[in-house]
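Example 3.
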Amino acid sequence: MTVVLARRAVIVLALACAIGFPFVFSNPATTSIAFFTVLYVAAASAWNLFSGYSGYMALGNAVFYGSGAYFIANVTNHLNLSGGMGIFAWVPVAGLFAGIVAIPVGWLALRTRRHTFVVITIAIFFIFQLLAYNLQSVTNGSAGMQLPLPPWLAATYNDYFYFAALIAAVIAIVVSWAVRRSHFGLQLLAIRDDEDRARGLGVRTGRVKLTAFVLNGVLTGVCGAIYAYYLGSVYPPFAFEAIFDLTVALMAFLGGLGTVSGPVIGALLLEPLQQYLTQQVTAAGLSLILFGALFLIVIGFLPHGIVPSVEQLVRRLKAARSR
Amino acid sequence: MSALLEVRGATKSFGGLQALDDCSFVVEEGSIAGLIGPNGSGKTTMFNVITGYERADAGSVLLQGNAITNQAPGRICSLGIGRTFQLTRVFSRLTLMENLQVGRAGVPRARRQELYSEARCLELLDFVGLAAMARVSAGTLSYGQRKLVELAMVLAQDPRVVLLDEPAGGINPLLITQIGERIRELNRRGVTFLVVEHNMEFVMGLCDVVWVMERGTVIAHGEPEQVRSDPRVLDAYLGGSLDEDEDENENEDEQEEAAR
């Protein structure tokens, strides 16, 4: 009972902090970092919803990130929309579009397992990146696309995007939590542990996996659309960014694969660090090298992630006390 | 009694290896049938063919006279055929309770809620003596305990016939007795069993009828006493007596060699 209450208190407190943050720390340099952090909370949770729960390590999530970004760029250009809050109404639609993209991608990639699946997702990612460069009529190639400029003052510009990302993050977390508690989520976890056995118990593994994959696509597409609007432009290497593929995975790994809070904690720790490194270490690519090194350290020394490791520690302490 | 499960002329080869060769047998409704035979005689392949994990090259599998040959494992499960595995296959990172609740997705919601309710799953775990560990992840259990969890997982599906692949293999004698008791108890409640097992004492004490396989086909069947003295069966087991445990024989051989 007390545990439930404490957990609720933590959630309310965290949400209050998240909402109050841009009002307390209003410096645009800070709110920019806050925006990316919250955006990656959403993106890492989305990735974890599929890969963390099912055990299928997808390293091509930028496909949906980029699809969401290009969708909103196309819509705003074709409909001649002017900048403002109204654009945000298209963000969920961009998510749905990315979800539709995820159907054939998942159908194809999920025919394979384990390492092959990883390689296939990377390959599909590069196909999409190449398409973005070459499908001139839809993407305008390497010249990129511009989105309408919002009429907001520089001092509060980030706040609008921050709150949009925060809503996306809350939705991604709530969906992750709901899936984790559902029969559907149980089937995903069973697939992670022993897919053939799950199939033998009547789990429709193909359908379950694809559903989770598409959910992941929708949520990631939402993130991509918000990101595109924030930047004001879309270019192939930013929309379909290989670093994005790795970052969301690293965040979930660091926090704890397959847990609801893991990717949240991972994103809260890593994204500010990455943004800080990018701002401080301007030497080309050095921040990426540091980031890559961190990935190796996490996999090497904290293979289960923070949340499961802490849980294990607590359990051990409890057991020691009861003895 | 009528035939619940019937296999007619099942044939299966892996490359040059003939794993099943025109194999036929019948499991009567309400019985406990044993399936024995030397290593490599095709018992597990037979299980895989019945439960849809392997496709039969020829022959058919019938459940109450209806052909269910080569259907998907999930479909076979939903028809009421449950199975356990020789090397246990539990979901190691899920709790025991969750392991029982994975279950089939095809069943209607109301039926699902009935089958996978906490109360019913807890009852099943209690039945195999593991209710106290309902919230423990299955990966932390001993091998014998996992066998019991597998049994409970199968029972959670409310099957009509259960295929057990070496339920007594590699576990301590106390648990073997417990598993035997549980099987008999379930059989009294109307569940039919087909048991693959190397522990002869266990098979002979448990089964109503025993089918003996060798090189992918059935060479004999009958009541345990009959089978025990059948010369063909003794021959299949390399002339060894069925009463003696194979491991003991090996140990004796080693001792003799050591004595020399």
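The CA atoms of residues 7 and 146 of chain A lie 43 Å apart. Residues 2-322 of chain A form a domain with the ABC transporter involved in vitamin B12 uptake, BtuC fold (CATH 1.10.3470).
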